[in-house]
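Box 3.1 A note on notation
Throughout this textbook, protein chains are presented in two layers. The first layer is the amino acid sequence; the second is a C-alpha cell string describing backbone geometry. Keep the layers aligned when reading.
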Amino acid sequence: VQLVESGGGLVQPGGSLRLSCAASGFTFSTYRMSWYRQTPGKERELVARITSSGDSTFYADSVKERFTISRDNVANTVYLQMNSLKPEDTAVYYCNTQISNRIYWGQGTQVTVSS
C-alpha cells in the first residue's frame, strides 16, 4: 500500500489549494479514504472522510463549507479542495486509509497559510 500526497504549499489567507493523494497497492474503490492534519505539539485530527463510492462525506466542524473531499476511483486518487483558507489551517496534511484493521498513512504535504 502506498499513499502519496501532493499539492501543498504557501498560500495567503482567503486563498485556495487542492491536495491530491495518489493511492496504489490495494483496490482503491473499495475503501473509505480520509484526510487528516497535524500541527507541532498537537494530535493528528480528522479533517474529512469519504466513502468508497464517494456518495457520503464527513467534515470536521472547523472546515465545513470551506473544504470539499472527492475521489476518482479510476485514477485511484482522493482530493481535498480547500477554499477560504485561514492561518489556523496551517498544518501537515495526511492521506489515510484502513485495510484489515491496519492503518496506512502517506508522507504528508505541508500547507502554510500566511500573508
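The radius of gyration is 13 Å. The mean pLDDT is 97.
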